[in-house]
Amino acid sequence: MKLKRILIPIDGTERSMHSLEFVKETYDPDQVEVEIIHIKELVFIDGISISDEIKTSEKFGKELLERARNIMKGYNVELFFGFGYAGDEIIKRSEDEDIDVIVMTKSTKKGFNRIIGSCTNYVLKHAKCTVMIIPE
Q1: Exposed site from 3, 51, 92, 129, fewest CB < 10 Å?
Q2: SS3 state at 8
Q3: Mind listing the domains of the chain with CATH numbers?
Q4: Coiled-coil regions in this chain (predicted)?
């Protein structure tokens, strides 16, 4: 039996970590391979990114991913950290890694785009695989 490949984007909010719990409640460890992804969007000033921000962001991102790995103890988990526009990077990663399901948590902001979040909305429009949006 082919294992389902699941991509879980997290952004560091407790809300985004609910996706991890959802996957644990829904799938047994022997049914899935999980990739947890964190993308940091960088602010450029005159085309130059601030190197301290890069180092700090990378340190935070890797610590966040390790925390997520601990939550998913017992599961086959890969971690991915990168810089870029989160929506684009999630789509690219889902295609490159032959992902079956992307699991994201909806936003708590108001208005349609903000109900699910602009990044989630982008992923919904562009993903070639199943996208599951779970409540907070």
Answers
A1: 51
A2: strand
A3: 4-134 (3.40.50.620)
A4: none
CB 83 within 8 A of CB 39: yes
Element (H, E) at 7: strand 4-9
DSSP letters spanning 26-57: H--TTTEEEEEEEEEPPPEETTEE-HHHHHHH
Please check whether residue 31 is in contact with residue 24, taking contact to mean a CB–CB distance below 8 angstroms: no
Q: Which of 37, 11, 5, 44 is nearest to 117 (CA)?
A: 11
Query: DSSP labels for 63-117?
Result: HHHHHHHHHTTTSEEEEEEEES-HHHHHHHHHHHTT-SEEEEEPP-SSSHHHHH-
Looking at the DSSP bridge assignments, the partners of residue 29 are: none
> Are the C-beta atoms of 29 and 45 separated by less than 8 Å?
no
Q: Are strands 44-45 and 48-49 parallel, antiparallel or unpaired?
A: antiparallel
